[in-house]
Structure formats: C-alpha cells, structure tokens
Amino acid sequence: MKNKTELIILTGFLGSGKSTLLQRLLQKEQQIGRRIAVIMNEIGKVSVDSASIPEKTPIRELLNGCICCSIQGDLTVQIKGLIEQYELDAIYIEATGVAHPLEIMNACTHMQLIGASYLKSVITTVHAKQWFEKKMSIKLKKLMTEQIRFADLIIINHIDGVDSSIIREVEAEIKQFNENAHFYVTSFASIQLVTNELDKQKDRLTYEAEFDAHIHHSLHIRTVNLPILSTVERVAFTNWLCQKDQLYRAKGFVQLNETPGMFLFNLSYGEVVFERLKKVNKQQPILVLIGERLEKEVIESELSSIYA
C-alpha cells in the first residue's frame, strides 16, 4: 500500500529565511534519497526563488496571489496533481511572507487529499533582529505572531551580529505565543533536524485565527517588478536598496559591472547577498521589490540613475 505523502509548510515574514531553509532541507532530503516536490508561492507575477531549487525536483509555482486566500483552491489542486503524477515522500510548500498559516493548513487537509497525504508540520522562520527591534506596524506584528502561533518548529534566524542576551529575550518572547513548538536558534537557516521534530505537536486545525487571515490586504503590501536594463555597480546597487523605506524584501537577477555572470540577489532587513548562478536558463535581469507604498515610477527613475 502506498504511503501517504507528507505535506510540510514553510511560513515566516518576508526576508526571514524561508527560501534558504528550503534549500537546506532539500539538500538533506537528497542525501537520504527521499522523493520530494516543491510548491512555491509568490505574491507577485515573477518567480525568483525557484532558480535555487535542485534540478529534476518537481516544482509548481503559484504566482500573483496568496495561497491563504485568492489562490487557496489552486494549492489543493497542485498538491493533488503532484501526488498523482509522481511517487513522492513529501511536498514542501513555501508560502509567501504575508500568508496566514491557517488557510494554508486548511487547503492541505482538503477532502480531495484524504487518503493520499497528511499535514506533517508547519515550520516558521523569524528574523531575530527584526523581531527584537519591532520596527513594524501593529498589524504586521500580529501577522508575525500568528505565523508563530501555528508553528510546530520555530527557527529564530539571522542571529549573526546579535548579542546573546537579545537572542534569549527574543526566544522568551516568542515562547509566550507558542511554548509547545521545537526551537532552533541559528544563522543562514543552518539546522540539523531530528526526525520527530517535524511531527505536529498538537492538532492546530482546532485553533481559530486571532487575526484576519487575509491581513496582507490591509497592510498595503505591494510588489513592484522591473527589468534591469544594464549592469550595475555592486556597492551603489546595495546602498540604494538598503536606503529605501518600508521595503521588506528585494530579490531578483542582476549582472554586476565588476564581475561577469548572472547573480541572484536577496535583500533582507538591510542585508544584501549576491550568489552567482551556476547555470543560467531563462533568467533575465529583473528587480522584485516587496513593501508598503512602493511607487513604481519613482523606483524606475532611481534605478536608472545607478546603472553602470
């Protein structure tokens, strides 16, 4: 009899380390020979993070919407399709950073999936410095709290450069919202999972959301996608990204003036990382910004001024 496929949800606010965590989990799964598929959700029209998924990994992308609301039904359909098409041990579902976990959990336990899959775990990443500094609106803080409340495993990430006393304070605060979850405190989403740490601690499907599951509508979160029409100078490009107010996340593909090749770049809470693509397929230079009150025309003008 075919075993049920595990469904593992990755949540966490923009820039907290979900995509890096997914890469590490997939590497581990490859090492032990498990058969894995991935579903990635982007609130915008452009997919960037899928470029980091290992070749031959079945992947489905849900773009231009949030799986906690407008494309929730699509998620169930994609899960069902993957299970029918492939022999899978698990499907990892990376939610957009403004998704509420409850609606995703409901999609993963839809009647169409009974007998074929089960919800194994909800993993939430938290940016340590962002949580401690609390430079966020009340609504945003409540969204992050809900992502924590529904987690079975919580990863307090990006602790490099953060004082140990602050890390202890952050962990203590987060445990007030979810004391039953397993915890990891790390940087670059580097963890060594014990198998049972992915098991659900309790039936969280009996919980009710304490906050609107469609919160991103009232957060004024907007995505701006722009082609990058020239090479850029790394320092000037980095400084420009880091100086933008209310920018929660930036990513894309870029060609640098000083180094040949195509680079994947990611901005998270004031830190920009560039990673050279080992293999360029259809990637074109593009900028994806996610934040509040972003003005496309202003961004276009600013970007053109830093072309090399």
TrEMBL record:
<dbReference type="InterPro" id="IPR027417">
    <property type="entry name" value="P-loop_NTPase"/>
</dbReference>
<dbReference type="Pfam" id="PF07683">
    <property type="entry name" value="CobW_C"/>
</dbReference>
<feature type="domain" description="CobW/HypB/UreG nucleotide-binding">
    <location>
        <begin position="8"/>
        <end position="183"/>
    </location>
</feature>
<dbReference type="InterPro" id="IPR036627">
    <property type="entry name" value="CobW-likC_sf"/>
</dbReference>
<dbReference type="InterPro" id="IPR051316">
    <property type="entry name" value="Zinc-reg_GTPase_activator"/>
</dbReference>
<keyword id="KW-0547">Nucleotide-binding</keyword>
<dbReference type="GO" id="GO:0000166">
    <property type="term" value="F:nucleotide binding"/>
</dbReference>
<dbReference type="InterPro" id="IPR003495">
    <property type="entry name" value="CobW/HypB/UreG_nucleotide-bd"/>
</dbReference>
<protein>
    <recommendedName>
        <fullName>Metal chaperone</fullName>
    </recommendedName>
</protein>
<dbReference type="GO" id="GO:0005737">
    <property type="term" value="C:cytoplasm"/>
</dbReference>
<keyword id="KW-0378">Hydrolase</keyword>
<comment type="similarity">
    <text>Belongs to the SIMIBI class G3E GTPase family. ZNG1 subfamily.</text>
</comment>
<dbReference type="Pfam" id="PF02492">
    <property type="entry name" value="cobW"/>
</dbReference>
<dbReference type="GO" id="GO:0016787">
    <property type="term" value="F:hydrolase activity"/>
</dbReference>
<keyword id="KW-0143">Chaperone</keyword>
<feature type="domain" description="CobW C-terminal">
    <location>
        <begin position="232"/>
        <end position="305"/>
    </location>
</feature>
<dbReference type="InterPro" id="IPR011629">
    <property type="entry name" value="CobW-like_C"/>
</dbReference>
